Fold this protein.
Amino acid sequence: METSALTLVWVIGVGLAPSLGPVSYGSNFAERYWFEASCSDQIPEDEPTEQVRQYESPQGAWVAELTRTVGSIVPYERAQARLRVRAFDGRTVCLKTQDFRSLEVSWFGEDILLLNQNLGHVVGTEEIYDLQESSWLVQRTISYHKAWTRPNWQSGSN
């Protein structure tokens, strides 16, 4: 299962990069990365939220519950999301992010969370969190740059 998930992510990444242009990695949008937060920290009640989405780890040891503002109502500069991840043994990890257009939550194996955010048309974040170690393995900004090509000017014979 782990290999097929990694292959799918690799295929999607390889499939997208050529159409969007060359890719570069950095930390330009580090202020928009997910970060650990208090589990009591909630989205303000005056902000409309979507129904809570649940993402169970492949063998059921963890359940991630995503609460986020409604993307079609709340502008991305006010968007907020909270992720509460609970283990079958009672451990809880809470993560928070803001200012995004869309986001994805998925699993790599039993204890690794993959978190992707779309911040704009050609900028996003790619983050990997190890629940066993309570630490970030990867947090980086992904930018796609449209390759500039010289126009094909043809001289006419008129």
Notes: The helical segments are 2-20. Confidence is low (pLDDT under 50) at residues 1-18. The chain has one helix and ten strands. The longest strand covers residues 135-144.
